[in-house]
Amino acid sequence: MSALLKVEGLVTRLRNGARIVDDISFGIKAGETFALLGESGCGKSMTALSLMRLLPDSIHVESGAVQLDDADILALPERAMREVRGGKMAMIFQEPGLSLNPVMTVGEQIAEALELHGGRRGATILPSPQPSPLKGEGVEQRCIELLQQVGIPDAPRRLHEYPFQLSGGMKQRVMIAMALAGQPKLLVADEPTTALDVTIQAQVLQLLRDTQQQSGMSLLLITHDLGVVAQMAHQVAVMYAGHIVERASRAQLFSHPAHPYTQKLFAALPDTARSGQPLAAIPGNVPPLHDIPKGCRFAPRCDKAWALCHEQAPEWTTLEQGQGVRCHLYSEVRREKGEGVERGRENGEGGRVDAAPRFSPSSFSLFPSLLQVENLQVHFPIRKGILQRVVGQVKAVDGVSLEIPAGRTLALVGESGCGKTTAGKALLQLIRPTAGSVRFAGNELIGLNARQLRKQRAGMQMVFQDPYASLNPKMRVAEILQEGMDALDTPSPSGGGLGVGEERQLHIDELLDQVGLAQAAKWRYPHEFSGGQRQRIAIARALAVNPKLLICDEPTSALDVSVQAQILNLLKSLQQELNLSYLFISHNLAVVEYLAHEVCVMYLGCIVERGSVQDVLHHAQHPYTRALLSAVPRIDGRGVEVVRLPGDMPSPANPPQGCHFYPRCAHAMEICRAAYPGATGINATHSVHCHLYGGEKKA
Amino acid sequence: MIAYLIRRILYAIPILIGVNLLTFALFFVVNTPDDMARMQLGIKRVTPDAIEKWKQQHGYDKPLLFNAMAEGAGKFGDTIFFQKSASMFVFDFGYSDDGRNISREIATRMMPSLAIALPTFFVGLLIYITFALLMTLFRATALDIAGVALCVLLMSVSGLFYIIGGQFMASKLWHWVPISGYAGGMDSIKFVLLPVLIGVMGSVGASSRWYRTIFLEEIGKDYVRTARAKGLSELRVLFRHVLKNAMIPILTGVVVVIPLLFMGSLLTESFFGIPGLGSYTIDAINAQDFGVVRAMVFLGSVLYIAGLILTDISYTIVDPRVRLQ
Description:
The complex is a heterodimer of chains A (699) and B (325).
Chain A lengths: L2 E12 L4 E11 L3 E5 L6 H9 L6 E10 L2 E2 L5 H7 L4 E4 L3 H4 L6 H12 L19 H13 L5 H4 L9 H13 L5 E5 L7 H18 L2 E6 L2 H7 L2 E6 L2 E7 H6 L4 H9 L38 H5 L5 E2 L5 E2 L6 H5 L8 H5 L19 E16 L4 E17 L3 E5 L6 H8 L7 E6 L2 E2 L5 H8 L2 E4 L13 H12 L11 H15 L16 H13 L5 E5 L7 H18 L2 E6 L2 H7 L2 E6 L2 E7 H6 L4 H9 L38 H5 L4 E3 L5 E3 L10
Parallel strand pairs in A: 3-8, 3-9, 6-7, 7-8, 15-20, 15-21, 18-19, 19-20
Antiparallel strand pairs in A: 1-2, 1-4, 4-5, 9-10, 10-12, 11-12, 13-14, 13-16, 16-17, 21-22, 22-24, 23-24
Helix pairs in contact in A: 4-5, 4-7, 5-7, 7-8, 17-19, 18-19, 19-20
Chain B lengths: L1 H29 L2 H9 L6 H11 L15 H4 L2 H6 L16 H36 L4 H15 L2 H15 L14 H32 L2 H8 L4 H21 L11 H7 L4 H10 L3 H29 L7
């Protein structure tokens, strides 16, 4: 089979000269899925936009050739290129919420694509704010067909809805329908599932596979997620700092990753098998584009690098079976020296790890309870009418009870909108809970006034999800760290005859040291740091007041895999050192598995299953937990049969009667409709709220 | 939505009372009823008796805000403030100091004001948006840069210069249109032409530059990339996708002034001798005619509040995400 898409020596530059995409070559066969894997900023999205010729104004393709079906894409006049876009080659994007026009109906947007490429000229839809009839029966029919093809229920009605009326997964389906309207030969999918929850991700990936089988189109899949690659790809190219550093079939890549970077990526993934030891984090950060190292771009972070790597950029080397790599380890120079080329995944595991202590399996001695939460409720009123009377409640958190012992980690797991973040904020009293009890180190927090609460605040601190947004950009690091100490009047641990100011400065140095930042960082501003470093600052800020409990709200979900591993290692070693307790809020089960001792799974404001990591993640009982687990793409490619959940999470303003989960549950019974299930103990530490396991009903 | 509108209208009542109180306080900080009487009676025959008589005739013989002599509710009711304000809420503005009915005066002067303000507004909007779209279409080219430079130049010149310069060239030198004045019916066209042109000129720089910024911000958004990825031409991307989304921020600044068009323009009307509401206000301020000033401030506040409510309603038309409740 000849290649459908052929890219040769593509170079894309910023106007200031930095090469964002540097000498990229690859080919995609008809019907094949080709994955472009890499971390943020490696140039994978810019490669895709170069192919579509949709680069932003400040970026242009400098040289190279792109052949699609014998058409020379880069040489086509703009008018002909418009025929290709959305016709032969369609694209879907990362954020379905932002990628659809908010003020046009779904039908109008699909019809627009049909009009251009569906052989239905003149098929316009009246631009009108009211649901407008689609002009021509044929177009409307085709739109409905497309929506049905991408699995949107009740398609004729959805046609006249606006994007904001659809859930995230639905929006991505609409994007796919729009892309399919022109019956493309190549679909470019730029991180199509990154913004979606795992159960929805599983649905969308399945849809992409099905569509590909039906239509025989090729798929260029851009992703940072090895799990997604394992599920979807036939061929894989790994990108690093603008280069493709390795190219292989999926099987080769997963059994014998050749490039040290690829090996490290595998090693940096959190996994149960490694839950006792630190992750092999890749030290340092991706080099900035304007300051690319002279030799191999990965050399500064590579533990196998030697002098040559820092001097001379490696050439492309072809290994057996079409696998190729850009690394001196495999180049002629190295072979001539007669050194054996080591390969295989073991290399990655043996890689240098951050200097974190080895963790001993925790002994199950007595853990005195630090935080006790009982029946926590956070309800937000819905107001209506002239007098703004309360007509209903959004039950964001509806009766959550949990307990965290000192020095342990409890993970709160669930999909977006399940109330996990609200629960975390309510514990800290950042949101006033509607009802319930929060006891921290024996003191009841609910009902305290502002002054009393401030005393308790020193004990519990929060690390937020997005380190880019959670640090004040106008404050230096030292000011950020000191502000909390000043506000809560924290005694410095060092003690001794120094003044308060000096003591705090010493404490700041100590903190920076603890989180692995240089002391010079003190006088710099947050924007001078990378994402991982910023999250370290955020952790140092939380630690500044000597808390006993950290509430970590998705602390790694905005970070790349290699950096995520650094942060996870840091959190784990800090816990050992300072005997911290963590409430770890996350949707990422692999991370939870690595870090947590106990897990609570939340669905629609309630905890549906709780127990030790072993219990919940390996002997899951609740159908929702099982679905959640099975939806996570595994890198071994085997995985469990995916339990597909139909539909989306219902609105917490109007939860289903009885068990909240029954409308999506494959095991739903008559009783599930009627009553919310009470807790059933599976063993001493493991309990589940599900009628499948009997137990008495909640009144 | 109905409930929302009713609530907004109820909110307007305390605002209007506050505005009234402030106007009243400001006016009587610099004036006293005695000053007003002297002003009206002229300089020659001012006797204390005449002043008392004038005050009695015009209802200014009571205390300003608080009447300690009166009984019960009369302590607040029997004052200048209450007597003069209460009737305004039913749009009865009373008489001006020279004895004319203010409401009738407003009704007759509204037409000339609108004859200038409406065309200035709509022609202006069309021109600003077109100019901004052009600059957006040719963004980052020489045309765009020249356009922005022109905008800055036009912005930097004082509005008075356009008026005086326009009158000098179009009327004095070339004799195209009369310098100033107004006539009813079709004759009004020749009087209206120059003020409208100058009104549009005066704000073309600031508005076009602002709209251009809005368009450029929209054009960088993800949904525009999606539209391009469908293969749409740049013009269709601009008109079908960008324009509609950009209308949301544009409406915020535009709809609110529509009701205020009734009030006319203070500057233009005085310079062109248009007998509209703008010149009426200026004259009243000069004559220290409290009745008229207060009526115009009240009317302005009502129209501004109406403008804000209209803005909210217009959002529901262009943005399907907005539901008023």
